[in-house]
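Complex 396.
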Amino acid sequence: MILAASTQRTVGLVLAVLVMVGLVVYMLFNFRIGKREVGSEIDLAANRTPHVDDLELETRVLDRSLAWSLVTLAAISLVLPMYWLMEPARQENAAIDWVGRFEVKGARIFEDGCANCHGPGGVGGVAAFTIADPDGQFVAQVEWKAPALTTALSRFSEAEVTDILNYGRPGTPMPAWGLSGGGPLTTQQVEQLVVYLRSIQLDQDAATAEINSGIRAGVGAVVTAADPSLTDRDDVDAAIDTWLEGATDPASDDYLLYGELLFNNASAQDANNCARCHTPGFSFGATSEAATADLLEAWPRLAESGILTGWQPGAGHVGPDLAGVEAHFSTSQRQSEFIRAGSEVGIGFGNARTGSGGMPGYGGRVDDLDVIGTVERSQLLTPEQIDAIVAYERSL
Ligand code: HEC
Ligand code: HEC
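Predicted structure with heme C bound:
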């Protein structure tokens, strides 16, 4: 450990070695050449009291002073290398301590500014939102789902989340928070929020359980619609298991529907689905043909203004229209890879398109977080689930 050390540790080590060698050499010479000295005598004036005699002065008194010097020198020699040896650990602990302080401050900012939409602890919530047309005319008053943020760092890098916080997401209720985007928070406060978000991320088991609960809810609706006599909870559960067993086979007739259910997964306020960014109006109620019809009836100006004209799965919202996506990815495999990794700002993807960093990655990620080291973020969708979604997307 000590050998694989930083500059400070090397300095400490060199000092320690020098002191040791010095001590040995000193003792060696001291013992070898040290011999009793014969003192010189002087006459003392009559008005002066005699001090201790030379013999005493050059032995006990001198030895006492020398002994004390040796003790202080030894203390300094020990403390100095110790200081240098421990300095890196001290610095590291100080940095980690600061991360802890950032987390506490971030939590406070979150409860003040974010929890009203994203829920306490970032578990997801809703935002009351007024939709206006490009001329600023009122169109509709909706409840817009604010996704849970407990898997956000699996989907996005911290730099991408910082970007979302700084600039918000135009066209949605998510406002700009950073000074750079016209918001109230300083760069450091945004950093504190990101550090806080780290502390609320779900581990792999919890993330998988959350996503599975959404899939099962979707499948439950399918099986109970097909067989209304299913009411007992255990029966429904068994029917869901049977359906899933069949539908996850790519040869199954239900495979595309399985992909669609994953695409629309409603758990955690839509946090882990695709529809909230790729299907118009999905976040504020356009979650199915029937639900969209209800929404349009309640708010006719939605259709008149062209903001939401009907149930159009995958037709694009924050993310692009997915119709014809086959033309952008030569093979399903390349499309699956893209969904696993997501887009990066300025990096090309698919058929010569350039990423904005806005498309999340679902295959898990490993982040190198400075003093904390590398952190593995949960995988949100398995490769098989991503393949099913891709099959569904390519059927749109
Ligand atoms: C007025 C409600 C509201 C407030 C306040 C708000 N958000 Fe949001 N936020 C949203 C909505 C709605 C979305 C999803 C937008 C969409 O449909 O794409 C969102 C999206 C996000 C996302 C992207 C998540 C993803 O997976 O796409 C992050 C990160 C985020 N918010 C963090 C925060 C933080 C941190 C704060 C506090 C500083 C905050 N939000 C305050 C409503 C809000
Ligand atoms: C937070 C919003 C968001 C979510 C959630 C999201 N996407 Fe995207 N998606 C985007 C954006 C934005 C792009 C465009 C790429 C870019 O700007 O970097 C994109 C691009 C894509 C593309 C490429 C489209 C093309 O024609 O080139 C595919 C395919 C895609 N997304 C699939 C998915 C799937 C599958 C999911 C769910 C597992 C998903 N997206 C979830 C925002 C999102």
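Residues 274, 276-278, 318-320, 322, 325, 328, 335, 339, 343, 350, 353, 355-360, 362, 389, 393 surround heme C (ligand 2) (CB under 6 Å).
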